[in-house]
Specification:
The chain has 194 residues and is of the alpha+beta class. 27% of the residues lie in helices and 32% in strands. The protein has helices at 3-22, 26-33, 37-44, 52-62, 66-70, and strands at 87-91, 97-104, 110-117, 122-125, 133-140, 142-147, 150-155, 159-163, 168-171, 178-185. The protein has a six-stranded antiparallel beta sheet. The chain has a four-stranded antiparallel beta sheet with strand order 4-9-6-7, with no helix packed on it. It is globular and about 45 Å long. It starts with a helix and ends in a 9-residue tail after the last strand.
Length: 194
């Protein structure tokens, strides 16, 4: 089975499990996530591999991290993730990528990411639930961070935090690759919220 097949199967199993655990019908999850009921059915039946954006919307609506939505069962309190088990969420032919390194559900989803952005490339995100906070550290290059339509320049060696309950994006407008580490803290969701 290929990595993509394993990812599709794991996502199908975990989406159904978490939807049932939260007590959401297909229609309720579709409304919360802004994803069609048909798409959720296709994902739960492992008939499609959704985009990163759809996966993020589903995780946010369930109040869990993307790691939990994509990952195998978690066991011990210490969780070591070897490099080959980190989940590459997207990549481009030019060499840009975002890799989810590790995540946890302690007091709501909390994730750690490794990003590589090649010159001229970027990625945009819809608003996350209220209370979501992102922390970034740029180790190479110069990041252009867009938060609610405002650009912020983040040079190598700098760190930044922001509330991610508005649209935001990460772009490399320079001539050198950007490397950064990002952590995302999402408040837990409850069936009655939204």
């Amino acid at each position: 089975m290929s990595d993509l097949d394993q990812l599709t199967q794991s996502l199908a199993r975990n989406l159904k499990r978490w939807r049932n655990e939260r007590g959401f019908t297909l229609d309720a999850l579709a409304a919360r996530a802004g994803v069609s009921r048909g798409m959720i059915i296709q994902i739960e039946q492992a008939r499609t591999n959704p985009s990163v954006g759809i996966t993020v919307k589903l995780a946010d609506a369930l109040g869990i991290s993307i790691t939990t939505l994509l990952d195998h069962e978690q066991g011990s309190h210490v969780r070591l993730v070897p490099p080959e088990q980190a989940v590459r969420m997207w990549s481009t032919e030019a060499g840009s990528s975002a890799t989810l390194l590790v995540g946890t559900e302690a007091r709501g989803p909390f994730e750690l990411w490794s990003w590589h952005l090649m010159p001229g490339e970027g990625s945009d995100s819809d608003a996350h639930p209220s209370g979501t906070v992102e922390l970034l550290h740029v180790s190479r290059g110069e990041l252009t961070l867009l938060v609610d339509g405002t650009e912020h320049t983040v040079p190598a060696g700098s760190a930044v935090s922001f509330e991610a309950n508005v649209s935001h994006g990460y772009h490399n407008r320079g001539s050198d690759p950007v490397e950064m580490t990002m952590s995302v803290s999402v408040p837990p969701a409850h069936a009655g919220s939204y």
